[in-house]
């Protein structure tokens, strides 16, 4: 089964293309399941879709689900930040969608760096704490790009190894897969940045017998056709990782 549950839309403000074009691209690329998971709306926040866009988002994905029934299974989800003061809001959103993904980017805290810009050991531990809080809520299907914390980090030092191992162990304890994120492969990185996906992180994940899931993190329809899904699957299985093709389970599709 070829499944991608990490797909954005123009509503988030940094993706492009019509919703239906993503579906058509997924069909052309041989996907069996496509899940839309645009950034969730939060009150008085500048990231994510606007709150007034949510109703149209849910309605249009439902229309596409019916239109393409028999060709591809379409799900509707949200990628969410683990913000403690909005946990009630997140639980309300969860009742409206098929699933939610945990995307720990900055936790909505004023002045906090985007997690792709972390450079200091204490910042990695802060990321870890936020991610564990999110996983412990029980709201999320998996943790998106767990190694985004290493994107701007200069080297895979002892702190990076310890944080990676601790994160994998917590994901195992809570039964959540970790996403191998294909969008990261296309992002530019400097010589003093690890970038993501980070091979050293996934070696630690294999040592900890973590479960992996592949996500395109598509922000344009063409990324679904260009993504090297088979190559990612081969890399992960080559490390001995368990790759979960369908994190929702065989009987949980609408």
Could you explain how this protein is built, in words?
With 254 residues, the protein is an alpha/beta fold. It has one domain (3-243): TIM Barrel. Helices cover 35% and strands 13% of the residues. It is built from 8 helices and 7 strands. It has helices at residues 19-28, 54-67, 87-94, 121-136, 158-174, 199-207, 221-226, 229-238; strands at residues 3-4, 33-39, 73-80, 99-102, 178-181, 211-215, 242-243. Helix 6 links the parallel strand 5 and strand 6. The model has no long low-confidence stretch (mean pLDDT 93).
Secondary-structure topology with pairs:
Blueprint: E1 3-4, H1 19-28, E2 33-39, H2 54-67, E3 73-80, H3 87-94, E4 99-102, H4 121-136, H5 158-174, E5 178-181, H6 199-207, E6 211-215, H7 221-226, H8 229-238, E7 242-243
Parallel strand pairs: 1-2, 2-3, 3-4, 5-6, 6-7
Helix pairs in contact: 4-5, 5-6
Global morphology: globular
Quick one: CATH superfamily? Metal-dependent hydrolases
Per CATH, the class reads Alpha Beta
**What is the strand content?**
5-15%
Known CATH architecture: Alpha-Beta Barrel
Helix percent reads 25-40%
End-to-end distance, in Å? 16 Å
**Stretches where pLDDT falls below 50 for ≥5 residues?**
none
How would you spell out the order of helices and strands?
EHEHEHEHHEHEHHE
Please report the number of helical segments.
Answer: 8
Q: Biggest sheet, in brief? A: 4 strands, parallel
CATH topology grouping: TIM Barrel
User: What is the oligomeric state here?
Assistant: single chain
How many domains make up the coordinates?
A: 1
Mean pLDDT equals 93
Q: Please tell me how large the radius of gyration is.
A: 17 Å
Strand segment count: 7
**How does the helix and strand content classify structurally?**
alpha/beta
Task: Tell me the strand order in the biggest sheet.
Answer: 1-2-3-4
């Amino acid at each position: 089964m070829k499944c991608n549950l990490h797909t954005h839309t123009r509503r988030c403000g940094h993706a492009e293309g019509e919703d239906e074009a993503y579906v058509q691209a997924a069909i052309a690329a041989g996907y069996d399941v496509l899940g839309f998971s645009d950034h969730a709306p939060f009150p008085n926040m500048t990231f994510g879709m606007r709150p007034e866009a949510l109703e149209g988002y849910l309605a249009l994905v439902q229309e596409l689900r019916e239109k393409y029934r028999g060709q591809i299974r379409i799900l509707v989800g949200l990628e969410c930040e683990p913000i403690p003061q909005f946990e009630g809001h997140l639980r309300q959103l969860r009742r409206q969608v098929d699933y939610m993904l945990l995307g720990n980017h900055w936790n909505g805290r004023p002045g906090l760096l985007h997690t792709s810009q972390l450079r200091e050991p204490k910042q990695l531990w802060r990321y870890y704490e936020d991610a564990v809080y999110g996983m412990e809520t029980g709201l999320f299907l998996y943790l998106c790009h767990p190694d985004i914390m290493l994107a701007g980090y200069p080297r895979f030092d002892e702190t990076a190894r310890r944080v990676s191992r601790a994160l994998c162990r917590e994901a195992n304890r809570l039964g959540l897969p970790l996403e191998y994120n294909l969008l990261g492969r296309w992002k530019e990185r400097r010589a003093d940045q690890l970038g993501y996906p980070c091979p050293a992180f996934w070696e630690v994940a294999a040592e900890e017998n973590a479960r992996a899931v592949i996500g395109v993190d598509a922000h344009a329809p063409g990324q679904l056709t260009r993504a090297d899904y088979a190559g990612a699957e081969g890399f992960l299985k080559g490390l001995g990782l368990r790759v979960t093709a369908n994190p929702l389970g065989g009987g949980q599709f609408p």
